[in-house]
Amino acid sequence: MLKQFSFSFFLIVLLASVQSAFAQEFQEPKSRQVMVKESIANLDSNDIKVAAQAAIHLGMYRAIEAVPKLLQVLQSSRLLQKTEHIIEGNLSSYVSIDVRREIVASLGLIGDKRAVPVLKKYLKRPLRNDEVFTGNVAHALYLITGQSHVYKDYDGVEKIYEASPIAEEEFRKRTRPDLRPTAGLTSSLRIDGHDPSGVYWMGNNRLNISLTITNQSKHPIEIDTSKNNFVFSSVAANGERTDTPVSLLPSPEPNGARRAVIPPGQKLTLTWVTELKDSPLSRRWSEGYVNIKCIYTNPKIHKQGAMWRGERLTSNSVERRYYPALK
After folding, report:
1. 196 inside domain
2. Is 131 inside any structural domain?
């Protein structure tokens, strides 16, 4: 009888443990505020993997409030780098985990100029294997300042940093938060995916794309809203730029009208809902960060009346981490 009771008790404890594990796995996603707070705390972790992942998260969240802590850890004398020997079957590899490398990358993504004096110091120091790579520092400085800096490679040769299209997009996005009105109009792009944290797009899900055009002038402005006039320009992780005409995507809402009049101070919002899997928008994307902006081209520049007199209207860029569709 005692054995039967003990076994029953064991099953109850086991089931409770399994239920607890499932509850933890399917718990509500954490908010950005909670994630940032936890990541800042994890920068002090003695586990180098945990600290490195915390630095990555802070960059993904553009956590400007974390810059002082990131700079403090970057300049500390702690052991922040290790190499692991991984053996999988017949394959053997060495993986480097470097907290300073991730901090430098995140400081570039955050774009706070408080990091510039500290980062510049690393360009002046002799390059050592336990130091951050000066090429990464030059890349981060470009993202913050838009200027190319000279750095010393591992071979000891001085080189000037050459920005990739993705770096140019990131800097342009940061330095044009509201965009100056072009012939009275501004254009703001917003893209929401099915990721509660807002950090990535997944190829299995769909995107909700909203383009808001605001009339900043004191007069009504009429524009030709034909979908042939809009293009999504994206830069994928491999540096390749792809222009996708909006005509290849489902019709925007509201649709039907080829012309729209925007009163002074008012907004016109066009929305698209598109599946990422096999979509023309993501067809040439590779896994990694993707920047997207929307370009409106006026089919005919008018010199009088209420029709818009600009030539091109470019929105801000939206960037997310992209993962291809799961099989």
Report:
1. yes
2. yes
Given the structure tokens 């990464």, which residue do they identify? 136
Question: What is the C-alpha to C-alpha distance for residues 39 and 34, in angstroms, rounded to an integer?
Answer: 9
Q: How far apart are CA 196 and CA 215, in angstroms?
A: 31
Q: Which residues make beta-bridge pairs with 319? A: 291
Phi, psi (rounded to 5 degrees) for 319: -125, 135
Full domain range(s) for residue 85: 32-163
Least confident of 34-43, 106-115, 141-150, 192-201: 192-201
> How many domains in the chain?
2
Q: Six-digit token pair at 186?
A: 């501004």
Question: Kind and range of the H or E element at 93?
Answer: strand 91-98
18-30 tens-digit pLDDT: 445 444 444 456 6
Which phi and psi (to 5°) does residue 266 adopt? -100, 170
Least confident of 45-49, 300-304, 321-325: 300-304
Would the pTM count as exceeding 0.70?
no
98: domain CATH number is 1.25.10.10
Task: Give the distance from CA 144 to its chain's centroid.
Answer: 15
Residue 290 included in any domain? yes
53 and 157 co-located in one domain: yes
Last residue of a domain, one of 113, 136, 163: 163
Asked if residue 194 and residue 135 are part of one domain, the reply reads: no
**Rounded distance, CA 146 to CA 111, Å?**
10
Crossing angle of helices 48-60 and 99-110, rounded to 10°: 10
DSSP string, 198-218: SSEEETTSEEEEEEEEEE-SS
